[in-house]
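Lecture notes, unit on binding sites. The following record was shown on slide 14. It pairs a sequence with manganese (II) ion.
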Amino acid sequence: ASTRPDLGDIKTLEQFILEQQDRFPHSTGAFSRLLRDISLAAKIVNRDMRKAGLIDIYGSTGETNVQGEVQQKMDALAHREFVLALRRGGECCLIGSEEHAEAIPLDTSSEGDGKYIVLLDPLDGSSNIDVCVSVGTIFSIYRLPDEYDEDEPDLDAALQPGTEQIAAGYVVYGSSTMMVYTTGNGVNGFTLDTSIGEFLLSHPDLTTPKTGRIFSINAGYYHSFEDGLCDYLDWLQEYDENDPNRPAKTRYIGSFVSDFHRNLLKGGIYMYPATQSSPEGKLRLMYEANPMAWIAEQAGGRATDGHTRIMEKSPTKLHQRTPLFIGSEDMVRRAEAFLQGD
Ligand code: AHG
Ligand code: MN
Ligand code: MN
Ligand code: MN
């Protein structure tokens, strides 16, 4: 018997978006075209990623980005592919990217409506590229507020709280390539079938377990964590005959997208707390914490900075960082209780 689903069983990302369109408040088709542009860039990055050892994109550009990080060639390539796709599509008027100090206004004279703002981590986990470990892309989409003109969008238009997002998603370039996103009606996952160049619906209505046995944190910084967090980590690793989730298992890839995706499916918590070298944590609010927080919440999980809901934080800078505790609700709540000394 054939193992391939017959044509009746598969649903492409485009078909799914069009189906959702009549449920979407701005069903002008512009949003569908914007997601098409993002998925095109993801396919191009995936193509180049899968042969990174064979073309000259290993290693660094020799530049230091606004984060103070040595920019990897793949960071720059992914940034360029997403900017090009969004510029060609014409639906986006302003991009905020980890790899560019200032927000980038796009000329919207082309056919698009130019009513959307895209915040982007073009390549997440870039320290893993040269060693063949999975990496990702994260995107967060806002509408341009009516008081702004899409021909000269004020850069502040990008600084909206996470609760204003109209879509949030990620691509994980792992053992397979998947796109997972939400528009506020649940979370859906699509797997790239490279033989036909389409993202196909593979994980409809994704939800995350209320609790789990996996915790993801860079334990190397243990001695710079606040006491409550050390108490939580110690508690997690104690044997408890009445708790099947303790001792918990540690899994840390060093790619937020990959750690997040595994924990979303299996249950778990990812933590990037304040440390001595990163007193505000390391992950960026606008294009890492906010989009993943919305996905986590839409899947039944939770995302805070240890005290405040991530999506309610008021941004002041494009690249501001935030401590992040995200994943299964019971695990995040337990971590908060330890942090607050309850
Ligand atoms: P990016 O590659 O986009 O700069 O993000 C890297 C982040 C995140 O993906 C990962 O979980 C974290 O940095 C790892 O940081 P440490 O090496 O300090 O653990
Ligand atoms: Mn980086
Ligand atoms: Mn990142
Ligand atoms: Mn990045």
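Take-home: The two ends are 58 Å apart (CA to CA).
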